[in-house]
TrEMBL record:
SMART domains: GAL4 (SM00066). This is C6 zinc finger domain protein. The lineage of its organism: Eukaryota, Fungi, Dikarya, Ascomycota, Pezizomycotina. InterPro entries: DHMBA_Reg_Transcription_Factor (IPR053175), Zn2-C6_fun-type_DNA-bd_sf (IPR036864), Zn2Cys6_DnaBD (IPR001138). One of its GO terms (molecular function) is zinc ion binding. The keyword Nucleus applies. Keywords: DNA-binding, Nucleus, Transcription, Transcription regulation. The keyword Transcription regulation applies. Residues 9-37 form the Zn(2)-C6 fungal-type domain.
């Protein structure tokens, strides 16, 4: 008998040790016998990457100097791209990701990446992103990441000449990887941002069809493209692009009933459209009081969407619900908290989905509260007493705004812990870094069972590693979003409803994130000023510099997922 290699049959037929006809999506053998076909396992479903951080953490100064001197011929230098990619795929694309909270890109990146040849656009694009991210941890300039990016763009252009490549997951993933590189480069001030890859991904939407062989992969990638467009529209206060709008209105956005993120995007698309309509109307007419819609009509529509968001929060899985911890009791007092409280989540991704939900509600509250201003909601000063007290729900809206901003502030300790120094590879083994976690509580404590159950949690070690790697990135966007929300346009009016000192606390935590990620202030000596700020509190950047930095970060985050 000839051995033709590993069977490609479905899981059910393999377990029964019978021949499978390999029909898709379900084999006819199982269908004929009335059995439940478990589908087909992917080749790389259980792929894991080896932790090679010891190569960096234990490297002495002298050996590093020798390596830099002989960079061209050093074996370790030649292996650097593989090391950076494995670091990126393990700590950013692998840990903390699940299909239950999938947005669609990182969850499929590893298997798609492993199916490619070394000269493919996806391999080159991921290598560029990985090199850039690892350079942040190693505090070097990584000049070759831009070269890899350029090579990936050239390779992608050549690949796109073949129309058959447009529908392949690897092609779409390469475009999204290039946009990720652009986002990072813009945030760090390497060059101005561009939407070319974001728009390119939108143009590939019709080809990411669910009737392809890689049905689930295409659906997830399509969802990520739409998710990024919805988030971008909310950030830029514009309507959805026509391509995305037709998909949102004419197609099914929901991947699975068990995926709350997809349901939130369906609501977010409507929030983005309402916000764009509101802003355009106010700009065109000078104030909403002179627009075609009455202020009360705007409030009714915004309240209707807010009710949908509240309904969403009641339907999420129990293990998604944030666990509230108190400083000094459940959380070490060295971890900065807001009003002595913090909220922890099963993963960074789930925490960020909650913050996206809060930002969407804040955008609706901005419409509601600004419609109360008299006589013109677009001519604000620092006083909240301009608001009419005639509406019985006004106090409720103000209270809701305070609760939402409080919740974002309470999530900051979960992402940052007590960290105060720039990223370093030694952080993964630094026992001095403390992170609030349900792992630190006794099992009998209320709420811990769900957080540590099979559905909601990973091991203690992986939980810690993924927060150390991803935490600052995930909280950067919500904090910069709050700062711009309270500073642009009528932001001073909204800021008047914040608790005393809360705006300053948000600024302080945002500066802390920029220090961890080594994001420079505008100017040639910007990053030095941040280090000085960390060492000498008397030399803080001015409020205008902080707000400008937040806006610059927002430019890079325009086409990123999340708040």
């Amino acid at each position: 008998m000839v051995n033709r290699g590993r069977s490609k049959g479905c899981v059910t037929c393999k377990q029964r040790r019978v021949k499978c006809d390999q029909a898709k999506p379900k084999c006819r053998t199982c269908h004929r016998l009335g059995l439940q076909c478990e589908g087909y396992q992917t080749r790389y479903s259980n792929l894991k990457f080896k932790d090679q951080n010891y190569k960096f953490c234990n490297e002495s100064t002298s050996s590093r100097a020798t390596r830099d001197k002989n960079q061209v011929s050093s074996p370790r230098a030649l292996a650097e791209p593989d090391t950076s990619v494995s670091f990126f795929l393990q700590y950013y694309a692998g840990m903390g990701r699940s299909l239950g909270s999938a947005r669609g890109f990182f969850e499929v990146l590893i298997p798609v990446y492993c199916s490619q040849t070394q000269d493919s656009p996806l391999i080159l694009a991921v290598s560029a992103v990985a090199s850039k991210i690892l350079s942040l941890w190693r505090h070097d300039r990584c000049q070759d990441s831009r070269e890899k990016y350029t090579q990936a763009v050239k390779c992608l252009r050549s690949t796109l000449k073949d129309h058959n490549e447009w529908e392949k997951p690897a092609t779409i993933s390469a475009v999204l990887s290039l946009q990720l590189y652009e986002n990072i480069a813009t945030i760090f001030g390497l060059h101005s941002g561009t939407s070319i890859h974001h728009n390119g991904a939108l143009s590939l939407l019709p080809f990411a069809s669910s009737d392809k062989a890689d049905c689930v992969t295409h659906i997830l990638l399509r969802r990520f493209i739409l998710h990024s467009e919805i988030c971008s529209a909310m950030r830029q206060e514009r309507p959805l692009q026509d391509t995305a709008y037709s998909w949102v209105k004419g197609k099914d956005l929901i991947v699975s009933a068990d995926n709350p993120s997809s349901r939130l995007d369906a609501i977010g698309a409507t929030v983005a459209e309402l916000q764009a309509s509101y802003m355009q109307s106010a700009t065109r007419h000078g104030s909403i009081t002179s627009s075609q819609k009455a202020p009360r009509d705007w409030r009714i529509e915004a309240k209707r969407l807010d009710d949908r968001l509240l309904a969403w929060s009641r339907k999420v899985p129990d293990h998604w619900q944030p666990l509230k911890l108190r400083s000094g009791q459940d959380v070490d007092s060295s971890i900065p908290t807001y009003r002595s409280l913090c909220e922890v989540y099963p993963t960074c991704q789930i925490g960020t989905i909650w913050n996206l939900w809060r930002v969407q509600r804040l955008l609706l509250l901005r419409i509601i509260l600004s419609s109360y201003a008299i006589p013109d909601p677009w001519k604000f000063d620092d006083r909240a007493d301009e608001v009419s007290a005639s509406d019985e729900h006004l106090g409720e809206y103000v209270h809701t705004l305070q609760e939402l901003v409080d919740s974002v502030c309470h999530s900051v300790p979960f992402y940052l812990g007590n960290r105060s120094n720039p990223l370093n590879l030694a952080d993964f083994g630094d026992t001095g870094i403390l992170l609030p976690s349900s792992h630190s509580l006794a099992v009998e404590d209320e709420g811990v069972f769900d957080m540590q159950g099979k559905k909601g949690q990973t091991s203690r070690e992986d939980y810690r590693r993924h927060i150390i790697a991803q935490g600052p990135w995930h909280i950067m966007s919500p904090l910069s979003r709050l700062l711009t929300l309270f500073s642009e346009g009528h932001g001073q009016y909204l800021a008047s409803f914040l608790r005393p000192g809360q705006h300053e606390w948000i600024r302080e935590q945002f500066l802390r994130v920029t220090l961890l990620l080594r994001i420079p202030l505008p100017g040639t000596s910007g990053i030095k000023r941040l280090y000085t700020f960390a060492k000498s509190p008397g030399q803080e950047p001015t409020d205008s510099e902080i707000e400008y930095l937040a806006k610059e970060v927002r430019k890079g985050a325009i086409f990123m997922s999340g708040p």
